[in-house]
Amino acid sequence: MPWTNQGGGGGGPWGSGGGKGPWGSGPQSQGPTPPDLEEMLRRGQDKLRRVLPGGNLGGKGFALVALAAVALWGFSGFFRVEPDELGVVLRFGKEVREVQPGLNYHLPYPIETVLTPKALRVNKIDIGMRVVDDVRRGSTVRDVPEESLMLTGDENIVDVDFSVLWKVKPTGVGEYLFNIQNPEGTVKAVAEGAMREVIGRSEIQPILTGARQTIETAVQDLMQKTLDGYGAGIVVQQVQLQKVDPPTQVIDSFRDVQAARADLERAVNESQTYANRVVPEARGRVAQIVQTAEAYKSQTVAEATGQTSRFLKIYEQYKKAPDVTRERMYLETMERVLGSTDKIILDSGQNGGGVLPYLPLNELSRPRPAQPQTGGRP
Q1: Which ranges of the chain does DSSP label H, i.e. alpha helix?
Q2: Residue 179 belongs to what domain range?
Q3: Are residues 97 and 65 in the same domain?
Q4: What's the whole-model pTM score?
Q5: Which of 57, 231, 254, 374: disulfide with 179, CB 3.0–4.6 Å?
């Protein structure tokens, strides 16, 4: 016989030692003997006879036992799904339906089974850092350089710590259970790869200053696209950058550079502010001068035009009656010249010269100044 259970150096075709088959250890020559099945059945029947009335099982007793076994088997199909779980019912290992949290039922084992993953819980993965809980010192953050150090597009090294919030898709529980073996490890590997790709396409200056939101969005989109390609049934809710710094060895130099660039931007902004204030004022003054000159020009031209028109009209009248017009012009001129002066009229007639009394009628119409009060009397 080729497979004989012999001790010593015999053995079959799958290794030394007797009695080993291709799927593991076969029957051993030493050790405890297995229990006798017939003896177990006999003891069970004896106990059942003691419980049943009359001490005899009979056909009716067997029917009751079978009915109780069927009832227990049927009731074993009830199961409960917790609030943060979703149930996936499998029929002979194939997914047939998904159930919501609460009390549910499936056909008893082995027809149907159920899996209840934590599909409604938001999970968080930290990359580049680890949160260590200490009873005495509390929670501390430990840096993981092999995950956080990344190379930028302009060949600089940057230390990036970030967190990923993810959960199972409401309609992708089956994909989550059967398409990936280690969901947390898969999400972590995809997140680290996506972050390295996005950082590798960017320069260090925007990464350290104002491109955090852009990087988070780009990493989230790239992660979601990769996970959908895997059929992982996972949705990435948010990517949060926790720390973006240069390496520890050169962080002081980078901070000096950042301070110098901030001073440069502040000086440029102040210069731009001064230019924005001075240039409009100068333009306003220029516009004011131009408008004043335009107004003076228009006024001068209008006055000259009016005087020309007046002269032409007087000239037309002068041609019609030169003597009358000349006398009228003389009288108007004398009125304008002598109207505001003190006048004394001298009579040089034939009856003898002398001063002619003159009644200043215009003085009578002027208001008299108030006289000051003296001695308490008006």
Answers
A1: 37-51, 58-75, 145-148, 173-178, 183-200, 204-208, 212-230, 251-320, 322-338, 361-364
A2: 123-246
A3: no
A4: 0.49
A5: 231
